Each structure stands twice: as structure tokens, then as C-alpha cells.
Amino acid sequence: MLFRVENLVHQYSDGTIALGGISLSFDHGERIALLGTNGSGKTTLLNHFNGILKPTLGQIFFEDKPLEYNSKALLELRRRVGFVFQDPNDQLFAPSVKQDVAFGPLNLGLTPEEVKKIVDEALETVGMSEFSEKPPHFLSLGQKKRVALAGVLAMQPEIIIMDEPTSNLDPRATSEILHLLLQLNKEKNITLFLATHDVDMVPLFATEMYILNKGKLVSKGTPKESLTNGNLIRQVNLRSPRITHLFEVLKTADKLPISDELPLTISEARREIIRLMQQK
């Protein structure tokens, strides 16, 4: 098992218990979504995966070994487990895009030639090569998120943790980010763990999902299993994905012959819509 979390409790210095006994696990190559409203504990949980925070109680295992919190162990962990913050402005600081992406590899002691090769590849992967000389603060939010991701990719991680990767993005930028992440998972076998409150992106991205509510893990399973549970979704103050709602409306209002297992992916939805149009 790649990561295993056992009875994780985190209490902040002001007494707030942000996580109240979380247990979960995931393995290589998976795409996991952590769903929950603001304040549910998502960011707190993410911050434990690469040692930004240390558990108050409980334990975290990486490749079946408990995390260690000395500087050497954390440096190696953070090389293998990349973290992309919700706000890219918290991550970008160098005068130019290429300098920002080069920061991590340079600190690994690589040669200038090796660093240049890695930086060029990372920027090409995220589609930002033409902006390599540009100051990050002149970029759009979507472009900044791509550069922040490139900086993580330059460390050649096995896992990427992302906090609200599509927040405040327009539909096109959201689609581009999701496509890029799916490409990284498929072509480089990078494990992805994303925290979000955007229910519409989850069925398009995740193979597994967890739902957090007030610091407690209330659901785990596939997106289809969890997001079609209307009672659960209402209890945690979320909503069903729009595509699920669309088919529920069609099913009840038009009485069209839609199967009870609602399609939750773009390809499934497209096939179902074509089938319905052919039957009308």
C-alpha cells in the first residue's frame, strides 16, 4: 500500500479538532478525490501527507513505513510526494517562470544541464514553454496553476497532492487542468490525490473518492456509489453532480427509458444521450 492513514487526529493549538480519527488508504496509480465543504478538514488532511503537519494522535504510513519527521526524511518524502497549493501565489516566488520551476531541481544538486532538461520537459508537459521567461505575477490564474504544477513535476514525484486545483477557474481552464492531470496519471503513472468541493469534476476524474464532514470520514467508494446516494449528499451539504441531476430530471419528467445506473462519465453520458435521441 502506498499510503495508509490510521486513526488520524489533528488538534490545532487553539483547541480546534480538525480531524477526528481518520483512517484511509490508497495505492500506486490511483486517482482519489477528497470531497467536502469548506471547513470539513480537507486541507488539514492533505498537509499530513508530506509532513507539513504532524498528527496529534494516530499514524501515517508511506510504503508501509511510518512517516519520520526529521529533516532528512521530510526532504525525501517531499521529493516523492509533490504538493500543489490551492493558491499558486503561495508557491510562486522567482523572477521568471523557468527560475521558479528550476528551484527544486537545483536544490537537489543537479547539474545546470540536467536542470535545464528537467525544466524544459516540465514546462512542455503543462503547456507553458512559451512563458518560460515571463514573471509569474503577469500570468492568469490558470497559467499560474500550471506553473506551480510544473514546479512539482520538476521534482519527478510519484504522487501529486492538490488542494482545490480547479477553484476560481473558468470552465475551459478547469477542463484543461483535468485533462492534464488525467494525462499525467495515464502516461507517467503518477498517483493523484485531489481535495475539492466541486462535485461536478469528481466523476470525470476520480477512480475512488472520500467524503469528509466536520473532520470525520463519512463515505468511501467509487464516485458512482457515493454521488448517487442522495441522502448522504444532502447530509454533508453537498449536491449531486449536474450530469446526475440532468438524467434524474429526464427520467422523471419525460419518462424516457434511462437505466437506473446513472452514467457519471462524459463518454457514458454521450452514449446515453445518443441512445435517447435515436429512440425519440
Describe this structure in words.
There is one protein chain. By secondary structure, this protein is of the alpha/beta class. The protein folds into 2 domains: 26-52 and 69-239, Rossmann fold (3-Layer(aba) Sandwich); 241-280, no CATH class. The protein has 11 helices and 10 strands. The strands form 2 sheets. The chain has a 6-stranded mixed β-sheet with strand order 6-7-8-3-9-10, sandwiched between helices. The relative contact order is 0.15.
Keyword list:
280 residues, alpha/beta, Rossmann fold, six-stranded mixed sheet, 11 helices, 41% helix, 21% strand
Give the helices and strands, then pairings:
Elements lengths: L2 E9 L5 E10 L4 E5 L6 H8 L7 E6 L2 E2 L4 H10 E4 L12 H11 L4 H14 L15 H13 L5 E5 L7 H18 L2 E6 L5 H4 L2 E6 L2 E6 L1 H5 L2 H6 L6 H13 L11 H14 L1
Parallel strand pairs: 3-8, 3-9, 6-7, 7-8
Antiparallel strand pairs: 1-2, 1-4, 4-5, 9-10
Helix pairs in contact: 3-4, 3-5, 4-5
Short description:
The protein is α/β, with parallel strands linked by helices and 280 residues long. It is 41% helix and 21% strand.
Relevant CATH superfamily of the largest domain: P-loop containing nucleotide triphosphate hydrolases
* N-to-C CA distance: 49 Å
Helix amount = 40-55%
Largest sheet: 6 strands, mixed
CATH level 1 class label of the largest domain: Alpha Beta
What sequence of helices (H) and strands (E) makes up the elements? EEEHEEHEHHHEHEHEEHHHH
CATH level-two architecture of the largest domain: 3-Layer(aba) Sandwich
* Relative strand content: 15-25%
